[in-house]
Every structure is written in C-alpha cells, then in structure tokens.
Amino acid sequence: MPRVAPGAGLAAALPAAPTPHARITVRVVDDASERLLVRRSIVHPVELARDRGAMVTAWRRGGVGYCATADLSRDGLRAAAEVADGWAARVERHGVFDGLDLRTLLDPTPLAAAPDALGEPLPSRADLLGLLRAESDAMRVDPRIVSWSAQVRRWRREQSLFVDGVLRARSVQRFVEPNLEATAADGPVSQTRSLAGQYNGFCRQGGAEVIRASGLAGAGARVAREALELLAAPECPSGTTDLLLMPDQMMLQIHESIGHPLELDRILGDERNFAGGSFVTPDLFGTYAYGSPLLNVSFDPGVPGELAGYAADDEGEAARKTWLIRAGVLLRPLGGALSRARAAARGTVLEGTANARAVGWHRPAIDRMANLNVEPGDTPFEAMLASVERGVLMRTNASWSIDDARNKFQFGCEWGQLIEDGRLTRVVRNPGYRGVSATFWRSLAAVGDAASFEVHGTPFCGKGEPGQVIRVGHASPPCLFRGVDVFGGG
User: Does residue 1 surpass a pLDDT of 50?
Assistant: First the structure.
C-alpha cells in the first residue's frame, strides 16, 4: 500500500463526495509512542507503538456516517467514503435532525498553521534511562520500601483534517508524562507516594522542559521518604471541617464533578448505559448556581503546554477560550457542533465549545473535556492557610468514586496534613473526603492566586461506546472549601 504523509501531500488521494448530497471530512492521524520503565532498579524492555490511519466522515443534511480505514491509498479512502455515506443515508432516514442541515456545520477555510508543540528536544533514550535508573536507585532508602519505579512515557501525534478536500487544520504535538512511585509497607499497613499521581503523572505537551518542570530529577529519595512518613503517620481524623485541596487533587475534582457532568452528549443521554448520565439538565444553563461566586471555570485550548491544547477540534471547529462557569453561574456545556445540533433539534439552543475529540483515527469524535481549568483568584496560599482554624490539606489523588449522575462523590488522596490555627502540622495517612457536586462547589471559600496556579492533566479519561481513553488537561490553584465531610482509613 502506498504511504502518504499526513499533510498537504495527501490531498491527491482524498475522495470526492460519493453523491451530491454529502460533504466529506477526512481526519488522518499518525501516532508514535514510547514507554521507558525502571522498576525495582531493573530496566524493563522499551515499549514502542505506531498507529496510523484515517477517519472518513460523510455529512448529509440530516445524518452523519463514519468509516475508519488504515488504507490511505486513493482507492482505500474512496471505499471508506462510500461506506460512511451509506451510514449517513441510513441515519438521515430516521429524522433525528429534522429541520437542520448538518452540512452547514463544516467550514473548509484553512486555519492559520499552529506552531509544532514539540518543545525542547528530549534527552536521548540512553540518557533518559540513566536518569530513571538514578532516581530508582535513590528510592531504596529503607528496607520497608517494597516497590519502587521510575518511568517516562512520550507520544508524538501528527494530525491533518481535510474538509471537502481542503486542509482545514494540521498539528504536530508531543506529550510527555514522567512519574515516580514508591510503596512502603510494615506488616499489614502500606502506603504509596508518587511524584504526581499513581494513575498518570505530570502530563504536558512539550519536551525536555516538561521533565524539568515535573521535578523528576532528584525527587526519588523525597518520594520514598514521604512514603515512609505516611507509613508512620496516624489515620486522617473524620468529621466536618475545612478542606484545602492542592492543584494535583483539584485536577481530579474538576475532572469528575465539573467536566463529566457538563458533557453535552452525556446530558442528552448518550452515556447512560455505559458511564452514566448527568445531574445537569439543559434548562440549567444561564441561571444555575453551580458554585460560589468565586468559581470561574474556562475551556481554554490555548494554555501553553497544557495536555489538550489545539487549534481546532476533530470536527474542524476553531477552538478558543470560553467560559463554562463564571462567578459561580453555569453558562454553557462542553458541547461540540454536532451535539449542539442535536440539542437544537430538540428545541434547545445552547452555546458550546470546540471539544469534539477522538482518541485516534479509528474512533469518531464525541464530546470530551480538553483543557478545563479553574481560573486563579486573588488569595495567596499563605493567606488561605492562615484563614483556617481547623482543617486538612490534601494533595495527589489516590482513589475516586462518583455516582452515575456525576453528583455524589468520594475521593481519596495520597497525602494529608492537618491545619491547626493557620499552620500545617501533623501528616496523616489515607485522607479522604466526600460531597455532592451540586452543593460542594458552593462551599468554595477561597481560590489561590496566579502564583499558585499549576497545570496538570491525565492521559486516561475514559468514555464512549466503543471506548475511548483520551488526554485531558486541568489547571488550577489551591482551593479552600468550608464544612466538608472528611474521613480517614481509605
């Protein structure tokens, strides 16, 4: 099969619309990934992967159809377009989009070329493995450290989106995820401490600067010592108290209790038999007090280095910063153009965001979080801490549970520290807290300033049928909540 670069050179192979009733988009994705792992000071085999193909989408007046193909030849893409158009014709007969013309959602105008998001050159594989071995060895500070690992994952994605044969958007991105993890055990008790989360790490777009910003170099001994400190610490006390969440736990809080509930396809019912629905209903937008007046949440694909930044979503809609929640009031959902059209067909006109995204070439785009951020406030961290008479500081997610409506939740963290009379005191282990999304954000009492704002993310956001595990970014300063149900013994 002839191989064609996923850029302007592919144009000659692009299919025309099979009928005059359809418009065709082609999204070509070329992914390459690498995982370097040193576990218990043993270098594991390097994991390499390469994945390349195209999603061809046919857009008719009242229906959309998809066909994925790894055959990027002229004949392969033409055959995929015919299959996609066949599915679009079937959908059109069911009248889901009566009164609308979905073809008008597409804009073939080329977007300005985005700079490649590759960052600084990464160290060589040998140098990275040397760094990981050094940090792995540094974690062997005590016989009670029973498991320890150091790793770096990196991905490179080249993507081109063509609308009616015209290159609408092209991007070249690199994603980097470094992490360290140490587990200490003494009898039946064990505690794990990581650099930035047991399920992902410090994830950003870029290169060597991401590894540098993560603090990976020199952090091995500290991570292991903190695991031992947790092992010796008392359980987190239970009760209703103030809660100070650090940015690496705010990431999870934003993700589960703002991001997923605001996905428009979920609100319209798509996920109910798989990942659940949402407590949010279409009539709440524009009036609902989602949080206290201090809560300001943006969808912002333009934050430098954040994991899910892009110029256009996977349906070709140009991305820009928009407000989802402002001064506590819910303004708009996370809804791409196709979902907004579905809502309009039901009589509900909503503003949305350019967040139709797919995990790769073999999946259609659905409503996903991208860079979803709590904007900085004006309270320095020290002032926030000083305002707490009795409370708990928590950082780094360790566990999560949330109901099908994305409303009632219970989250656990790796690290807890008591706050007494405005000062951090004893470390506590197994800290957790629970609440209800619809009221939790209204207890927001202070939002950290720009100096405390941190960019995080996760590459493991799951959703959709068939399933898609995608990268999302979340940034936030520390946030203080009053009167939260806190507990220990997670």
Answer: no
